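#struct-pred
JK: can someone run the complex with adenosine-5'-diphosphate? inputs below
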Amino acid sequence: MTGKKVIAIYPGSFDPVTFGHLDILRRSLELFDTVIAAILVNKEKQPLFSPEERLEMMQEAIGDFGPRVETIYFDGLLVEAARQHNANVIIRGIRAVSDYEYELQMALMNRKLAPDMETVFLVPDQKYSYLSSRLVKEVFSRGCTPECLVPDAVARRLVKKYNLPQ
Ligand code: ADP
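RT: done, C-alpha coordinates with the ligand placed:
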Protein backbone atom coordinates (compact mmCIF):
# COMPACT_ATOMS: atom_id res chain seq x y z
CA MET A 1 0.00 0.00 0.00
CA THR A 2 1.42 3.34 -1.04
CA GLY A 3 -1.33 5.46 0.47
CA LYS A 4 -1.70 7.14 -2.90
CA LYS A 5 -5.13 8.63 -3.54
CA VAL A 6 -7.02 6.97 -6.36
CA ILE A 7 -8.78 9.33 -8.73
CA ALA A 8 -11.42 7.90 -11.06
CA ILE A 9 -13.02 9.52 -14.07
CA TYR A 10 -16.65 8.85 -15.05
CA PRO A 11 -17.18 9.99 -18.64
CA GLY A 12 -20.45 10.39 -20.49
CA SER A 13 -22.74 12.66 -22.41
CA PHE A 14 -25.03 13.09 -19.41
CA ASP A 15 -27.66 14.56 -21.75
CA PRO A 16 -29.21 14.81 -19.18
CA VAL A 17 -27.94 13.22 -15.97
CA THR A 18 -30.34 10.55 -14.64
CA PHE A 19 -30.74 8.69 -11.36
CA GLY A 20 -28.87 5.81 -13.02
CA HIS A 21 -25.77 7.98 -13.47
CA LEU A 22 -26.07 9.21 -9.88
CA ASP A 23 -26.32 5.64 -8.61
CA ILE A 24 -23.04 4.83 -10.38
CA LEU A 25 -21.41 7.96 -8.97
CA ARG A 26 -22.50 7.09 -5.46
CA ARG A 27 -21.08 3.57 -5.81
CA SER A 28 -17.82 4.95 -7.22
CA LEU A 29 -17.35 7.11 -4.15
CA GLU A 30 -17.34 3.97 -2.03
CA LEU A 31 -14.34 2.73 -3.98
CA PHE A 32 -12.27 5.76 -4.97
CA ASP A 33 -11.00 8.87 -3.23
CA THR A 34 -12.09 11.31 -5.91
CA VAL A 35 -14.49 10.83 -8.80
CA ILE A 36 -14.51 13.21 -11.74
CA ALA A 37 -17.75 13.36 -13.72
CA ALA A 38 -16.46 14.22 -17.20
CA ILE A 39 -18.96 15.69 -19.63
CA LEU A 40 -18.28 14.92 -23.26
CA VAL A 41 -18.50 18.10 -25.30
CA ASN A 42 -17.87 16.94 -28.80
CA LYS A 43 -20.18 14.25 -30.07
CA GLU A 44 -21.37 13.57 -33.61
CA LYS A 45 -24.96 13.50 -32.44
CA GLN A 46 -26.39 16.88 -31.52
CA PRO A 47 -27.14 16.82 -27.78
CA LEU A 48 -30.38 18.25 -26.41
CA PHE A 49 -28.57 20.24 -23.73
CA SER A 50 -25.48 22.38 -24.22
CA PRO A 51 -22.31 21.36 -22.40
CA GLU A 52 -22.88 24.25 -19.97
CA GLU A 53 -26.43 23.09 -19.22
CA ARG A 54 -25.26 19.50 -18.76
CA LEU A 55 -22.49 20.60 -16.39
CA GLU A 56 -24.89 22.77 -14.38
CA MET A 57 -27.39 19.93 -14.06
CA MET A 58 -24.63 17.57 -12.95
CA GLN A 59 -23.37 20.07 -10.38
CA GLU A 60 -26.88 20.57 -9.01
CA ALA A 61 -27.43 16.81 -8.88
CA ILE A 62 -24.22 16.04 -6.99
CA GLY A 63 -24.74 18.82 -4.47
CA ASP A 64 -25.07 16.30 -1.61
CA PHE A 65 -22.08 14.18 -2.57
CA GLY A 66 -19.48 16.50 -1.11
CA PRO A 67 -16.09 17.65 -2.35
CA ARG A 68 -14.88 14.23 -3.51
CA VAL A 69 -16.86 14.59 -6.75
CA GLU A 70 -15.61 17.03 -9.35
CA THR A 71 -17.03 17.99 -12.73
CA ILE A 72 -15.15 18.78 -15.92
CA TYR A 73 -15.76 19.06 -19.65
CA PHE A 74 -13.75 16.96 -22.02
CA ASP A 75 -13.34 16.87 -25.74
CA GLY A 76 -11.26 14.39 -27.66
CA LEU A 77 -9.54 11.42 -26.11
CA LEU A 78 -10.77 10.31 -22.73
CA VAL A 79 -7.40 8.91 -21.70
CA GLU A 80 -5.83 12.32 -22.26
CA ALA A 81 -8.45 14.04 -20.10
CA ALA A 82 -7.88 11.34 -17.49
CA ARG A 83 -4.12 11.93 -17.54
CA GLN A 84 -4.53 15.68 -17.27
CA HIS A 85 -6.53 15.15 -14.11
CA ASN A 86 -4.28 12.40 -12.68
CA ALA A 87 -7.03 9.79 -12.95
CA ASN A 88 -6.00 6.20 -13.53
CA VAL A 89 -9.38 4.55 -13.28
CA ILE A 90 -12.18 4.89 -15.83
CA ILE A 91 -15.69 4.14 -14.57
CA ARG A 92 -18.49 2.94 -16.80
CA GLY A 93 -21.94 1.72 -15.92
CA ILE A 94 -23.26 -1.57 -17.24
CA ARG A 95 -27.03 -1.89 -17.29
CA ALA A 96 -27.49 -5.02 -19.35
CA VAL A 97 -25.61 -7.37 -21.65
CA SER A 98 -26.44 -4.96 -24.48
CA ASP A 99 -24.10 -2.35 -22.94
CA TYR A 100 -21.28 -4.83 -22.60
CA GLU A 101 -20.08 -5.27 -26.17
CA TYR A 102 -19.53 -1.58 -26.84
CA GLU A 103 -18.08 -1.02 -23.38
CA LEU A 104 -15.66 -3.91 -23.82
CA GLN A 105 -14.39 -2.48 -27.12
CA MET A 106 -13.91 0.91 -25.55
CA ALA A 107 -12.17 -0.50 -22.49
CA LEU A 108 -9.74 -2.49 -24.65
CA MET A 109 -9.05 0.48 -26.92
CA ASN A 110 -8.41 2.68 -23.90
CA ARG A 111 -6.05 0.02 -22.52
CA LYS A 112 -4.18 0.07 -25.82
CA LEU A 113 -3.84 3.83 -25.58
CA ALA A 114 -3.09 3.93 -21.88
CA PRO A 115 -1.98 0.57 -20.42
CA ASP A 116 -1.67 2.09 -16.96
CA MET A 117 -5.36 2.90 -16.78
CA GLU A 118 -8.00 0.43 -15.63
CA THR A 119 -11.65 0.48 -16.64
CA VAL A 120 -14.02 -0.48 -13.86
CA PHE A 121 -17.58 -1.48 -14.70
CA LEU A 122 -20.21 -0.83 -12.07
CA VAL A 123 -23.74 -2.18 -12.02
CA PRO A 124 -26.53 0.13 -10.87
CA ASP A 125 -29.45 -0.79 -8.68
CA GLN A 126 -31.74 -2.89 -10.85
CA LYS A 127 -34.46 -0.27 -10.66
CA TYR A 128 -32.28 1.85 -12.97
CA SER A 129 -31.31 -0.87 -15.40
CA TYR A 130 -33.88 0.27 -17.99
CA LEU A 131 -33.04 3.95 -17.62
CA SER A 132 -31.13 5.91 -20.24
CA SER A 133 -30.86 9.60 -21.14
CA ARG A 134 -32.23 8.72 -24.57
CA LEU A 135 -35.41 7.16 -23.16
CA VAL A 136 -35.88 10.01 -20.70
CA LYS A 137 -35.80 12.46 -23.61
CA GLU A 138 -38.23 10.36 -25.63
CA VAL A 139 -40.72 10.17 -22.78
CA PHE A 140 -40.55 13.89 -21.93
CA SER A 141 -40.64 14.93 -25.59
CA ARG A 142 -43.98 13.13 -25.84
CA GLY A 143 -45.42 15.10 -22.96
CA CYS A 144 -44.99 12.56 -20.15
CA THR A 145 -43.21 13.72 -17.02
CA PRO A 146 -42.77 10.70 -14.76
CA GLU A 147 -40.97 11.10 -11.44
CA CYS A 148 -38.12 8.85 -10.31
CA LEU A 149 -36.08 9.05 -13.51
CA VAL A 150 -34.18 12.30 -13.09
CA PRO A 151 -33.70 14.85 -10.29
CA ASP A 152 -36.43 17.52 -10.06
CA ALA A 153 -34.15 20.24 -11.38
CA VAL A 154 -33.47 18.15 -14.50
CA ALA A 155 -37.19 17.38 -14.94
CA ARG A 156 -37.92 21.13 -14.80
CA ARG A 157 -35.35 21.79 -17.51
CA LEU A 158 -36.79 19.04 -19.70
CA VAL A 159 -40.29 20.51 -19.28
CA LYS A 160 -38.94 23.89 -20.37
CA LYS A 161 -36.94 22.48 -23.28
CA TYR A 162 -39.99 20.70 -24.69
CA ASN A 163 -42.39 23.60 -23.92
CA LEU A 164 -44.58 21.38 -21.76
CA PRO A 165 -47.17 22.85 -19.36
CA GLN A 166 -45.45 23.60 -16.02
P1 ADP B 1 -22.83 7.62 -23.49
O1 ADP B 1 -21.37 7.78 -23.33
O2 ADP B 1 -23.25 6.27 -23.99
O3 ADP B 1 -23.57 8.76 -24.09
P2 ADP B 1 -24.20 8.24 -21.03
O4 ADP B 1 -23.87 9.64 -20.88
O5 ADP B 1 -25.66 7.91 -21.23
O6 ADP B 1 -23.30 7.48 -22.02
O7 ADP B 1 -23.73 7.45 -19.75
C1 ADP B 1 -22.42 7.45 -19.28
C2 ADP B 1 -22.15 6.17 -18.58
O8 ADP B 1 -23.17 5.89 -17.65
C3 ADP B 1 -22.09 4.93 -19.47
O9 ADP B 1 -21.14 4.04 -18.93
C4 ADP B 1 -23.45 4.34 -19.36
O10 ADP B 1 -23.42 2.93 -19.57
C5 ADP B 1 -23.74 4.64 -17.92
N1 ADP B 1 -25.17 4.72 -17.66
C6 ADP B 1 -26.10 5.42 -18.31
N2 ADP B 1 -27.34 5.22 -17.78
C7 ADP B 1 -27.16 4.35 -16.75
C8 ADP B 1 -28.03 3.71 -15.83
N3 ADP B 1 -29.35 3.89 -15.85
N4 ADP B 1 -27.49 2.88 -14.94
C9 ADP B 1 -26.15 2.66 -14.93
N5 ADP B 1 -25.27 3.19 -15.77
C10 ADP B 1 -25.77 4.04 -16.68
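RT: quick notes.
The helical segments are 19-31, 51-61, 78-84, 97-113, 133-141, 152-161.
Strands lie at 7-12, 34-40, 69-74, 89-93, 118-122.
JK: thanks, will look after standup
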